[in-house]
Amino acid sequence: MPRMGDNVRDRAAILADLRTATLPRTVRCYSQVGSTMDVARQLLPELRDDELPLLVYADEQTSGRGRLGRSWVAPSGSALLLSLALRPGWLPPERALSLVWMAGVALCDAVAEQTGLAAMLKWPNDLLLPTGDGVYAKAAGVLLEAGFNGAALAWVIIGIGVNVSDSPPPGLARYPATSLCAAAGRPVDRLALLRALLRHLDAWHALLIAGEEQALFDAWRARLHSLGRSITVQLSHGPIIGWAEAVDRSGALILRDAVGALHTISTGDVGVLSP
Ligand code: BTN
């Protein structure tokens, strides 16, 4: 449950002395929306380039969505639910995934900073937290939606959902789920977490604009819990089991199967192996 005084829907409190370079330039907060992705999409055309990035935050979503067509559900006030909208004219469309790496790395580092936990990423971008005995569970996810103008990127919306004080019950989530509070064993301040996340996002955003994509890629790869393990990956035509050997420079996962064949996977859902 939300803590007394844990008001994240306070634009002034979010921005107070934040000291970020560009992110966010516009903030909109809501108690309840369908999906922050849709709100951001509706607001984008009204905003000039110098009013972006836009941050849309909500305490509750009635139709939150996740990757691969799934829904994303969280009790009101128990999560950080946000979308960040940009018109990244500086970014070639084939490099759009770097924004997903930016979100994953920033999320990992903000959560580690606020909880003291060794946060990592499940490929490509789910936040994992240690829950004891070497077991890691998912506590947050990242969703990227983009629109094109011919071949150019017209807009990008990065959605981030973090289970702060509640997580889906076993059976509802495909991967073991946890919350920051459960993994840390203490309350976690959602406003402080949001502010830390914005600072980390801003720092990587500035580096990306400056052309430092390799540094971001290296930081993302270094946080990938999935690498160097036997994993299952759910693909559209069924599961594949193998050794997660590497990621290539496009971010695709390189998996070696039982007969030694290499598979390059661009989209999929990494799961746990049954014992
Ligand atoms: C995933 O792990 O599948 C990604 C989940 C992304 C959920 C967030 S919550 C805020 C934003 N609004 C949505 O409808 N989805 C994203």
Account of the 3D structure:
The protein has 275 residues and is an alpha+beta fold. Helices cover 24% and strands 31% of the residues. The protein folds into two domains: 11-222, Bira Bifunctional Protein, Domain 2 (BirA Bifunctional Protein, domain 2, 2-Layer Sandwich), CATH 3.30.930.10; 230-272, SH3 type barrels (Roll). The strands form two sheets. It has a seven-stranded mixed sheet with strand order 1-2-3-7-6-5-4, with helices on both faces. A five-stranded antiparallel sheet has the order 11-10-9-8-12, with no helix packed on it. A hairpin with a 3-residue loop joins strand 4 (120-122) and strand 5 (126-130). Helix 3 (97-115) runs antiparallel to helix 5 (190-209) and helix 3 (97-115) packs across helix 6. 40% of the residues are buried. Residues 1-5 have low confidence and may be disordered. The site of biotin has 20 residues, from helix 2, strand 3, strand 6 and strand 7.
